[in-house]
Design brief:
The complex is a heterodimer of chains A (360) and B (186). By secondary structure, chain A is mainly α. Chain A contains 11 helices and no strands. Chain A is globular, with a radius of gyration of 26 Å. Helix content of chain B is 45%, strand content 22%. The relative contact order of chain B is 0.15. The chains are: A mainly alpha (360), B alpha+beta (186).
Chain lengths: 360, 186
């Protein structure tokens, strides 16, 4: 009896440690799940502030290089940013809103439904096999309407839940300012919590993740902005209606590799068909215009701003978009690839650190 | 009569923190002025290591340099058989790991606290960030590192030259001994 009990006692410390860890994980998971509804708003505000500070941070660095202290530099950058936001609200947002409403009305009108009906009939005639699959019964128009309203309501509700409220905006501005001003102090105080054993690996990991993520976020933002602006200009030259709204969609769609550039051209083509059904040549012009925008993006913009480490295989992109769509609808499809990019960068850096510090 | 308010306003702020004083003593930071040293003070990390605790390990990717604020640090190397060889014992004011300010090459030795020690750590990402934000200060530090490396390289060259000369004279002596042996043999 004694030998057995001694063996059990000798196993105890490991067993207790293991059980302790398991219990702690359970407790923290439970607390996390329970606290999430209360913390989610704060987390979203924090996330928006992190994104903003990583986009605006380099401008504060530039001012600091010109001998302007960070306290003032961060304030100047934030004020300029707010001024641009006010300008956007004054001039750009009403135009986009008007065009978005007009596009929505156009989608709700009978014309697309008529066009789709003609398209369905054409398929039934040309492809009787497909028609046997009851293609005529598929409610294309309803599906497109649902997609657009889902996308618009998803993005609009998110925008208005986060930044629409003045209090949230104020909090975001304050956090962003403090992050830009005291980013090093904040990082330092977080790093001071790392135990000595993991000090260098932890710091190395934190630095690599921070650098890669900042580059990725900044790259995506710049790329989407440039593609959006080029598309707006191109569509304006081609005299396509609602060019601002469609151009912005093209810019946002560009966040999705491989599929985005094509998806960005579709709304422009659809609106062109609806408005000018007798001018199919316009579709060719639109396609050429988007091809030129993509050429400029791929040869000039992307190589300058995008991080190479976030390259994804087309299959991965498709799977990620499907998952994003299942989780958050059309809006989820849009943000799935950037979110996966952030996770990929973080995971790669963790693997690098574990590999290099464990082998030593 | 004393006026504490005016005395406080016009008092010269000459006291320097322990960290700034330690930084001043390191050749890498010798060219920096007071404000620049205070900027570096914001970037460095101060940590306490107990006896036997490792600061970094041999073969780990290098991340930056350390300055001994108090206590004692041993630089040790482990050979293939696992034997431990103490290369140096560093006390207050000494610095180590400075090559890692330039690249991520693996550490050539392990650093461990020989007693309770306070250490200041200055890392490459912070140096690169400083180079981006305050290039003048950053260049002064890089020049400091380059000077140290140049001094070490010169010393290595001198040593290598001396060793070469010793080898040559020993070879000559051997040759002479060989000749003498050949002459003396019947």
């Amino acid at each position: 009896m004694n030998q057995d009990s001694q063996q059990l006692i000798s196993l105890d410390p490991d067993l207790i440690r293991g059980l302790g860890k398991f219990f702690l994980i359970l407790v923290f998971t439970y607390i996390g799940i329970k606290a999430f509804p209360y913390l989610s708003n704060a987390l979203v505000l924090l996330l928006v502030s992190v994104l903003l500070s990583s986009i605006l941070g380099p401008f504060v660095d530039i001012l600091e290089r010109r001998q302007i202290p960070r306290v003032i530099g961060a304030l100047i950058v934030l004020l300029v940013f707010l001024f641009l936001i006010v300008l956007a609200f004054r001039f750009l947002i009403p135009a986009v809103r008007e065009q978005a409403i007009a596009v929505n009305e156009l989608i709700q009108s009978q014309r697309p439904a008529e066009l789709l009906h003609t398209f369905q009939q054409w398929i039934s005639e040309k492809l009787p096999a497909a028609a046997a699959g009851e293609i005529e019964n598929i409610d294309f128009s309803g599906k497109i309407n649902a997609f657009f309203s889902d996308f618009l309501s998803g993005s609009v509700s998110l925008l208005f839940n986060i930044a629409g409220m003045i209090s949230s905006l104020f909090i975001v501005i304050v956090i962003t300012y403090l992050m830009m001003k005291d980013s090093r102090k904040i990082t330092k105080s977080i790093i001071s919590l790392i135990p000595n054993k993991y000090f260098e690996p932890g710091l190395n990991l934190a630095d690599k993740i921070q650098t890669q993520l900042s580059n990725y976020i900044r790259g995506q933002f710049t790329d989407a902005l440039v593609v959006g602006m080029l598309s707006v200009i191109g569509l304006w030259i081609l005299d396509i209606k609602y060019f601002v709204f469609i151009g912005l969609i093209a810019g946002l769609a560009n966040l999705i590799p491989y599929i985005g550039p094509v998806a960005g051209a579709i709304p422009a083509m659809a609106i062109s068909i609806i408005n000018n059904p007798g001018e199919p040549i316009m579709l060719v012009y639109i396609a050429i215009m988007f091809a030129i925008v993509q050429m400029i993006d791929n040869s000039i913009v992307s190589p300058a701003v995008m991080s190479k480490s976030v390259n994804m295989h087309p299959i991965s992109v498709i799977i990620i978009i499907i998952i994003g769509g299942n989780l958050m609808g059309a809006f989820g499809m849009l943000i799935a690839v950037p979110a996966a990019g952030i996770l990929k960068v973080t995971f790669e850096q963790i693997v690098w650190t574990v590999k290099h510090y464990q082998s030593a | 009569m004393k006026y504490p308010l005016w005395e406080n306003i016009f008092k010269r702020r000459t006291e320097e923190s322990e960290t700034v004083l330690a930084l001043k003593g390191v050749p890498i930071f010798q060219e920096l002025v007071k404000n620049e040293l205070k900027e570096i003070e914001k970037l460095v990390h101060q940590r306490t290591y107990t006896k036997g605790e490792q600061i970094f390990s041999q073969e780990q990717p290098g991340l930056g340099m350390y300055i001994v604020l108090s206590g004692k640090v041993n630089i040790v190397r482990h050979d293939e058989e696992g034997n431990k060889l103490i290369l140096a014992s560093l006390s207050q004011g000494s610095f180590f790991g400075d090559m890692s300010l330039l690249d991520e090459a693996p550490r050539s030795a392990t650093a461990e606290a020989a007693e309770l020690s306070q250490i200041i750590a200055f890392f490459r990402p912070d140096l690169f960030d400083l180079l981006n934000r305050q290039p003048k200060t950053g260049i002064k530090i890089i020049t400091g590192v380059a000077n140290i490396i140049a001094t070490r390289l010169r010393a290595q060259n001198q040593l290598s030259q001396e060793l070469q000369e010793q080898v040559e004279s020993l070879t000559q002596e051997i040759e002479q001994l060989k000749d003498q042996t050949a002459d003396s043999s019947p």
